[in-house]
């Protein structure tokens, strides 16, 4: 999680954390107040940004060690410790690198951007004080992206059962593919087996554009 590149030096405390949920319903937090867990290590608490370059926090995760210890899910959170909401200049995501990032409250952060696997920005209409932004399914090695505001009370209940209930609700939501099928049926269209023969093509890149996808609701 990186924030406020381009701003002048100031006190601005954003906190990255994760909650590890185990099969036996035990939970463990890896955050500024508990830096080391089995399979997870936090980079440390950063409470101010240096001039212009911004700063960051990160958590090193080892999926094999998490699985070995019986972990089922890892829930990733962002918290605006100072200020009313998460910063508009904050980006978060996941990366894979054999070298640790170097972080300094005086010099900022140094890392290799080519190691970033997925990066996201929170939309301005969802800038809550606290946000769950992803859940790692340890067994599947799969991350489910979320933008879900939470309170201190609800985070305390982020155990295995709560996470499974949340993921089940997400699975039951209408998918983009189902919307496409409804559109085809409503407009009496044929779904082409070969994309080259289709009058309209809906690609993976198209599906990443929420504005384009939302227009399906207007058919």
Give the topology, please.
Elements: E1 2-3, E2 10-11, E3 14-22, E4 27-30, E5 36-37, E6 40-42, E7 48-49, E8 55-56, E9 59-61, H1 63-68, E10 71-80, E11 91-95, E12 102-104, E13 108-110, E14 116-121, E15 130-137, E16 142-149, H2 152-155, H3 160-171, H4 176-186, H5 204-207, H6 210-214
Antiparallel strand pairs: 1-8, 2-7, 3-4, 3-10, 5-6, 6-9, 10-15, 11-14, 12-13, 15-16
Quick overview:
The protein has 219 residues and is of the alpha+beta class.
The sequence of SSEs as H and E is EEEEEEEEEHEEEEEEEHHHHH
DSSP summary, beta strand count: 16
Q: Stretches where pLDDT falls below 50 for ≥5 residues?
A: none
Structural class assignment: alpha+beta
Shape: globular
- Tell me the β content: 25-35%
Q: Into which percent range does the helicity of residues fall? A: 10-25%
Q: N- to C-terminal separation? A: 38 Å
**Strand order of the biggest β-sheet:** 4-3-10-15-16
Mean pLDDT: 79
Q: How large is the count of helical segments?
A: 6
The main sheet comes to: 5 strands, antiparallel
Radius of gyration: 20 Å
